[in-house]
Design goal:
alpha+beta
């Protein structure tokens, strides 16, 4: 995993374009689509969430949504190929004295129509398949889009509840 300087400054990774209007205090990570890299990403999000004022329960929800999104990239975007890149951007947000976090995950795998991304019926009781439902339940906003030439981007936002 590549990381920016934890002391601040421009953290854009080579090959990771900065989103228009993205603050420079965003944390940008590039990992391989290997589940063994997820604990480091979870820890980074946990620290950022605590810095903007999330309590433990809300931080756990953020991390759960991150896990589900990354699992979907690994399984559906890359078909389990662990060497493929995933770019992650975690941005602290401040609006009207309230903190929040935006997490953007970009893969370079298979593209799908964002309108077709939906959770399965909750009455369909069986293991797996609840990631999209979980993400939409615990986050305030979840948006899917096609990335440039290949892959997808999911952007999730959660605000501290006061």
């Amino acid at each position: 995993m590549e990381r920016g300087d934890p002391g601040g400054g421009d953290r854009a990774l080579e090959g990771c374009s900065r989103l228009e209007g993205e603050p420079s205090d965003s944390v940008r990570l590039r990992i391989s689509a290997d589940p063994r890299e997820m604990p480091q990403v979870r820890e980074t999000l946990t620290v950022l969430a605590e810095q903007v004022g999330f309590e433990a329960d809300a931080t756990a929800q953020l991390v759960l949504a991150l896990d589900e999104a990354l699992a979907n990239v690994i399984k559906h975007g890359y078909g389990g190929r662990c060497a493929e890149p995933i770019d992650i951007c975690m941005t602290p947000l401040w609006e009207n004295g309230c903190g929040g976090v935006r997490v953007s995950i970009r893969d370079f795998g298979r593209q799908v129509d964002p309108a077709e991304i939906c959770g399965r019926d909750l009455d369909d009781v069986r293991p797996g398949g609840l990631g999209v439902h979980i993400m939409r339940s615990v986050m305030d906003e979840v948006e899917y889009g096609r990335a440039d030439e290949a892959g997808m981007r999911v952007t999730m936002t959660k605000w501290v509840k006061r």
